[in-house]
Amino acid sequence: GVFLYNHLQQKVRNAEALAQKYKQQQEALSAQLQVVYEHRSRLERSLQKERGEHKKTKEDFLVYKLEAQEALNKEKQDSMNRYGALSSQHKILKNQHDDVKKQLLDLQLQHNSLKLEHRKALESHSQKYTQLQQEKDSEVTNLQDTVFKLREESKLLRKAHQEVHSQLLNAQAQMEEFRQLKEALQKMPGLR
Predict the structure, then answer these.
(1) CB–CB of 139/188 below 8 Å?
(2) DSSP 8-state code for residue 159
(3) CA-CA distance, 145 to 175, in Å (whole number)?
(4) Which of 116, 86, 182, 130 lies closest to 108, judged by CA?
(5) In Å, what is the CA distance from 25 to each residue of 22, 32, 39, 145, 156?
(6) What sections of the sequence does the record tag as coiled-coil (predicted)?
(7) How far, rounded to the nearest angstrom, does the alpha carbon of residue 24 sit from its chain's CA centroid?
(8) CA angle, residues 31, 24, 26, in degrees to nearest 5
(9) Going by C-beta distance under 8 Å and a sequence separation of 6 or more, which residues neighbour residue 186?
(10) Does the pTM of the predicted model rise above 0.70?
(11) How far apart are the first and last CA of the chain?
(12) How would you class 167 by CB atoms within 10 Å of its CB: exposed for 0-12, middle for 13-18, buried for 19 or more?
């Protein structure tokens, strides 16, 4: 009976020790569970806060996206307007360029025509000048011949009668007129 009592008492002590161990484990688990609950609570609050911030960020992003879209549409419209204005200005400048090009072509044709006319006039003037030069040379030669003949006649008339001497004076006066005519011809710019 003692042995049985001791044996039972030993079992009771073992059971109490095991119960104490389980109780300590339960308390440790309770403490860990409490920490886990608190951590979970903090995580839920943090998650809630993150969700709120995410919602606000999403709303801000939507507002920003809307404003950016409106700004982009406005910029696109402004660009289209500027493109239209530049396109119109380009057409005007192109038309002006074509007009100036046509005027330049007309002026070049006119210049070529005037150049041809100038060349023809120059050739005509050159021919006329050559002709007048030849006529002048011919007249000078004729006048020289006339002067020579008059000098010969003057030599003969000096030996003649007073009446012939009078004719000689007239011939000399005529010779003087021919000399003045020669000088006048030489001074003419068209015959120089």
Answers:
(1) no
(2) T
(3) 11
(4) 116
(5) 5, 10, 20, 165, 181
(6) 5-60, 90-135
(7) 93
(8) 55
(9) 192
(10) no
(11) 180
(12) middle
Taking a C-beta distance cutoff of 8 angstroms, is the pair 164, 105 a contact? no
Structure tokens at 172: 């000399």
Structure tokens at 79: 């660009």
pLDDT in tens, 52-103: 999 999 999 999 999 999 999 999 999 999 999 999 999 999 999 999 999 9
* Whole-number Å distance between alpha carbons of 51 and 190: 112
Chain center to CA of 106: 25
The Cα 121–Cα 114 span in angstroms is 10
Question: Are 187 and 152 within 8 A, CB to CB?
Answer: no
- CA dihedral angle for residue 95, residue 96, residue 101, residue 102, rounded to 10 degrees: 70
Question: How far is residue 159's CA from residue 167's CA, in Å, rounded to a whole number?
Answer: 12
H-type alpha helices, the chain: 2-158, 162-187
CB-neighbour burial class of residue 164 (10 A; exposed 0-12, middle 13-18, buried 19+) = middle
Query: Poorest-confidence range of 11-15, 63-67, 146-150, 162-166?
Result: 162-166
